[in-house]
Design goal:
The chain has 192 residues and is of the alpha+beta class. The chain is 56% helix and 11% strand. The protein folds into 2 domains: 2-54, no CATH class; 73-189, Cytochrome c/b562 (Four Helix Bundle (Hemerythrin (Met), subunit A), Up-down Bundle), CATH 1.20.120. The protein has a 4-stranded antiparallel β-sheet, with no helix packed on it. The longest helix has 24 residues, at 73-96.
Length: 192
């Protein structure tokens, strides 16, 4: 039975098994079917090259747009938000998993305060271009956006105060308030 150009399946009468046979460069090569670790050199190359080629071709199809403007303000604010998230997420995990560590939580809250100013200066009026995920309302409804930023600052101050008090109930409530402010701002000002 022919399986591909220049390849066919044969049946070995000596050990009663099926063989995959190929004719390459005039030489005939037969090997057991691809079961377990029994690969021919040709099969090994296909097995290694195909996933790599697929990954490269899929990465070329990415719709990720680079920020090419001077100073890369969109990329800078996205990076600043990610830095805050890397500090904020472990706090939530700690609370959800019931593994509250007052000292570590306070350190994370302090780190969040130090990072919270990062993105806001990069929302200049001329920064509403791809790859932004900000909605036009950031600029058209600036007063509401500034109010949301102020609410976030107030809630992170309260989170740090609660963390310093080392009271789990206060910490949990304060964390929820910061989370709610983040979600509210994202609903209003971030593209889905």
């Amino acid at each position: 039975m022919v399986t591909a150009a220049g390849c066919w399946r044969a049946f070995s009468k000596s050990n009663k098994s099926q063989l995959n046979c190929c004719s390459t460069s005039g030489a005939r090569q037969c090997c057991p079917p691809l079961v377990g670790a029994a690969f021919s050199a040709h099969d090994m190359h296909v097995t290694l090259i195909l996933p790599i080629a697929l990954a490269i071709s899929l990465s070329a199809c990415s719709d990720q747009v680079e920020d090419t403007r001077p100073g890369q303000p969109v990329k800078m604010r996205q990076t600043a938000f990610k830095e805050m998230l890397r500090v904020f997420e472990p706090m939530g995990t700690m609370l959800r998993d019931g593994k509250y560590n007052a000292g570590k939580f306070e350190a994370l809250a302090t780190d969040l305060i130090s990072k919270r100013n990062g993105p806001w200066g990069h929302f200049a009026p001329d920064t509403n271009y791809p790859p932004t995920k900000a909605r036009p309302e950031v600029w058209t409804n600036k007063a509401q956006f500034d109010q949301a930023q102020g609410a976030f600052f107030g809630s992170t101050d309260a989170l740090l105060t609660a963390a310093r008090a080392k009271d789990l109930k206060r910490v949990t409530d304060a964390y929820s308030t910061v989370y709610d402010h983040c979600q509210s701002c994202h609903r209003e000002f971030k593209k889905k």
